[in-house]
């Protein structure tokens, strides 16, 4: 049975199941800005609850399920290992996705990317406006809860847009390297935008951290 776990610092799939035995516990990453820093586009109450409650819950649950998995490994209980994988995927994915999401946002964000990322967007989507429209449409169209993503297909050497349900991590479920993720769970916007997801998606472009996305793109090509 093949398996994976998540590194504490980068929240990526990094090792086979045997390494779970000596793993460190995951911790909630600090935000690189204050909770109110993204206002008026995302208010402080949302950011505080989203980070300190929702993301923290994923981290805590991930640590619990990994302990249970460690016990199942020690006992050689394959049935228990299999039964724990949905919880690992959900909480591990929640930790991965949010760790990326916070860095994708900045009070100094917005506008358009520059350099290689902008050239790649023009190459693969025709224009930045087309890319923005497509990612917004995919994110609006997520049924229930999930994420809209800009990812990098390393095999094909091109950018792709994708949607993932719930907390499914982009790379672990599609193979695409995550560059920009937009959280469309209601907890990401409901207190401010109610049930009008398109208004939230219109606003979030004002705080996208293109420097971070560009850096992720440069790293993904190596």
UniProtKB/TrEMBL annotation:
It catalyses: 2 superoxide + 2 H(+) = H2O2 + O2. Residues 113-216 form the Manganese/iron superoxide dismutase C-terminal domain. Residues 25-106 form the Manganese/iron superoxide dismutase N-terminal domain. Its cofactor is Mn(2+). Pfam families: Sod_Fe_C, Sod_Fe_N. Its main location: mitochondrion. GO terms for cellular component: mitochondrial matrix. It comes from the Eukaryota. SUPFAM superfamilies: Fe,Mn superoxide dismutase (SOD), C-terminal domain, Fe,Mn superoxide dismutase (SOD), N-terminal domain. Keywords: Manganese, Metal-binding, Mitochondrion, Nitration, Oxidoreductase. It is found in: Mitochondrion matrix. Mn(2+) binds at residues 50, 98, 183, 187. InterPro entries: Fe/Mn_Superoxide_Dismutase, Mn/Fe_SOD, Mn/Fe_SOD_BS, Mn/Fe_SOD_C, Mn/Fe_SOD_N, Mn/Fe_SOD_N_sf, SOD_C_sf. Homotetramer. Belongs to the iron/manganese superoxide dismutase family. This is Superoxide dismutase.
């Amino acid at each position: 049975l093949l398996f994976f776990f998540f590194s504490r610092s980068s929240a990526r799939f990094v090792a086979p199941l045997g390494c779970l035995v000596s793993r460190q516990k995951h911790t909630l990453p600090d935000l690189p800005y204050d909770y109110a820093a993204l206002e008026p586009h995302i208010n402080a109450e949302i950011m505080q609850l989203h980070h300190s409650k929702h993301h923290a819950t994923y981290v805590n649950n991930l640590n619990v399920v990994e302990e249970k998995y460690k016990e199942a490994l020690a006992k050689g209980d394959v049935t228990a290992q299999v039964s724990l994988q949905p919880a690992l995927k959900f909480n591990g994915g929640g930790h991965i996705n949010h760790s990326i999401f916070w860095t994708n946002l900045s009070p100094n964000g917005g506008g358009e990317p520059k350099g290689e990322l902008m050239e790649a967007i023009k190459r693969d989507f025709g224009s930045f406006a087309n890319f923005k429209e497509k990612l917004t449409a995919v994110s609006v169209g997520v049924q229930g809860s999930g994420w809209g993503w800009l990812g990098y297909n390393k095999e094909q050497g091109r950018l792709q847009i994708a949607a993932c349900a719930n907390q499914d991590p982009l790379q672990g479920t599609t193979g695409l390297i995550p560059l920009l993720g937009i959280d469309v769970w209601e907890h990401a916007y409901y207190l401010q935008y109610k049930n009008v997801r398109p208004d939230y998606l219109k606003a979030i472009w004002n705080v996208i951290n293109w420097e971070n996305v560009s850096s992720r793109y440069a790293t993904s090509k190596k």
